[in-house]
Structure formats: C-alpha cells, structure tokens
C-alpha cells in the first residue's frame, strides 16, 4: 500500500441477502483518496453510494476486500479500536443532519470532543471556533428545532470537523435543503475542506460541489468508475 494515500480500498464488496434475492450493493471496488483531495461520488438512488461511504468510513463491514486509513487497516480492527479510530480520524455529515434534538448547537458540536475526552477549556475554544467558521456564533445556544435546515446542516458540518479529522465523509449533505441553503452548504464544505487540507468523499448530485471536486466517480449497481475529466491524481 502506498503511504501517499489518505485512504485506500481494495476489492471491497457488500452483499445483502433478502427475500428478493442477493443484492451486490458494493461490488469489487478499488479506490484511492489522497491528502487534501475532494472526491465526489454520484449515482442514482439505490446505486450503492451510502453503502460505499459507510464501508470506507468503517461504519459497516465489507463482505470482501480491505480498507486502510493512512497505514491503519480498519477492516480487521477490534471493535473498540475501530470506534476510537472513527472518533479521532473521521468526520461524517449526514443528509438527515443527525443532531441530538435536546442539545444546543454548542452541545451538539461538542459531542465528538467529549467522546475523545478533550479537556473542557479546549473544548470550549474549539467549539466556538467551529461555530464561528460556519457562521453560527449567534445561534450557539439554540436547539435544532429553532434552526433552519441549512443552519442545522452547518451545525452538522461543524460537529464533523471539530475533531480535526483526516477524512470527511458527507452523504447527500444538501438532499433536504432548498436551493439557496444547498448552495451555501456546498460552498462551505468546499471552503473548509480546502482550508484545512482534509481529504473528503462526498455523495452528491449538486453541480456546485461536483465542479469543486478534484475527481468525480460514478456508481451503478455497486460498481465504481471514474468520470474522466482530468485531475490531480489518476486512479491507481
């Protein structure tokens, strides 16, 4: 494995069995993600985008194949080690925001730092900085129900980045937003990823983020292929 890759997957597959038969949601995928690279994965509903992101992020276990983040192979980690790895190296932005309804914006963003046992004074500083970066300092004490959809997703982005992850995953981050809010979120993700040098894999159809991407992949029936348009890196 090349040490240049921030994330690498080889031959990963995920098979689901149901009454309707066997579904190959992810099929023999090879994938490299490089430092400070923004990659978009696009495809129709049911094509395997979410399954792929979950496998790469260690949220699901592949039926076949292997995934590394840096030089750490995550597909055969003990569960307690995998949990610590996800907390420290990965950020995840969900389409449905995934905020805890009884917590304020500040408290939601603080959750990953509490799980990492960051000391309270540092937590306070880092949370305030992230809320400022996503333009929500004035809404820090509001709960999700008091925020618009776009504001809730900005809280989700702040939460995903507050632990300073190596890799960011975002699954249709504008899927529940109006066009104006979606534009704001797309620009925000692109700007923050570039500024922090984070490697990012984003499932989206949004043309604004597709235009920002270093590389674009299409997924159909669980198979991944690169959309050739040039870019900083070639598929290995």
Automatic annotation (TrEMBL):
Keywords assigned by UniProt, alphabetized: ATP-binding, Nucleotide-binding, Transport
Keyword Nucleotide-binding: yes
Signal peptide span: none
InterPro entries assigned: AAA+_ATPase, ABC_transporter-like_ATP-bd, ABC_transporter-like_CS, ABC_transpr_LolD-like, MacB-like_ATP-bd, P-loop_NTPase
GO molecular function: ATP binding; ATP hydrolysis activity; transmembrane transporter activity
PROSITE patterns, A to Z: ABC_TRANSPORTER_1, ABC_TRANSPORTER_2
Residue ranges occupied by any ABC transporter domain in the UniProt entry: 7-235
Pfam family for this entry, one: ABC_tran
Superkingdom classification of source: Bacteria
GO cellular component: membrane protein complex; plasma membrane
Name this protein carries in UniProt: Putative ABC transport system ATP-binding protein
Organism encoding this protein: Spelaeicoccus albus
């Amino acid at each position: 494995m090349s040490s240049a890759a921030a994330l690498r997957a080889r031959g990963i597959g995920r098979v689901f069995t149901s009454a309707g038969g066997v579904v190959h949601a992810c099929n023999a995928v090879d994938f490299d993600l490089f430092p400070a690279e923004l990659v978009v994965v696009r495809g129709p509903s049911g094509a395997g985008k979410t399954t792929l992101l979950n496998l790469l992020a260690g949220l699901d276990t592949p039926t076949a194949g292997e995934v590394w983040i840096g030089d750490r192979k995550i597909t055969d980690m003990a569960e307690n080690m995998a949990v610590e790895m996800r907390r420290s190296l990965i950020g995840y932005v969900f389409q449905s925001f995934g905020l805890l309804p009884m917590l304020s914006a500040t408290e939601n963003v603080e959750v990953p730092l509490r799980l990492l046992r960051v000391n309270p004074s540092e937590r306070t500083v880092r949370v305030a900085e992230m809320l400022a970066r996503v333009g929500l300092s004035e809404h820090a004490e509001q709960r999700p129900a008091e925020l618009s959809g776009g504001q809730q997703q900005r809280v989700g982005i702040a939460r995903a980045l507050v632990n300073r992850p190596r890799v960011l995953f975002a699954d249709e981050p504008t899927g529940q937003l109006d066009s104006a809010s979606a534009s704001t979120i797309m620009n925000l993700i692109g700007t923050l990823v570039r500024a922090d040098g984070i490697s990012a894999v984003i499932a989206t159809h949004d043309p604004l983020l597709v235009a920002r991407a270093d590389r674009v992949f299409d997924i159909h029936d669980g198979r991944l292929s690169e959309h050739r348009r040039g870019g900083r890196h070639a598929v290995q």
